[in-house]
Design a protein that fits this description.
Layout: H1 2-10, E1 11-12, E2 15-16, E3 19-24, E4 33-43, E5 49-62, E6 65-68, H2 71-82, E7 89-90, H3 93-124, H4 126-165, H5 171-205, E8 210-223
Parallel strand pairs: 3-8
Antiparallel strand pairs: 1-2, 3-7, 4-5, 4-8, 5-6
Amino acid sequence: MATRLLRAEVWGAGHLERAASLVVDDPNLTEPVLAAYSRLVLVGADGQRLHEELFAAGGRVRGDSFSRLGVTALAALLDAALGPASSPRESPPAAKEDLVRSWPKVSGNLEAAITARAKERETSLTASLAKRQADEKARTAALLSGFEKSLRDALAKQDQAQQLSFADLQPDERDQLTADRSAWQQRLDSLPGERDAAIAAIARRYTSVQVLWFPAAVVHLVPAKRNR
């Protein structure tokens, strides 16, 4: 429901919000371009967020038709239009009216471009997710191994201390030491099972990764030469 509400803030049935229509001085921009910045989130089977990023997708608009642009070409146009060296200005009313008029026919194509790009990113992230899973397993195993060593060292030191001074301790102090040692030993005995359960949980997290996306902003780029 939250995703649907956020999507509705950008576009919904028959309307467009949070869009910037800009006139751009870029010789490579020969036709209007319609693009959307979207948020991509990969969620594990346990609900944990595994990856998040913003990505752009879009294409050229020719009247009521839409032609998707490749990632590199679109990035170059957006960088030229919105980068630090750019000086975009608001489009005139006529350009905005053209966008509003064509929106019902091109919005589906823009959404298809976003979906296609999201799937491409999902595919390209497969290797990095596999590495992240392996890193999580290794890190978990290392942490538990370190904890196991600490417990063994603590037990060994306590055993040594008991041999030297156990007879000199008060009864309640002896009872406390005995209870501490029993608790540490129980914790030590449980670590192999905890390690197996933690590694299994990590594996389950990556078995069914859900891909979520929604548009955050729409950008309409208009060639400057069309408005001279």
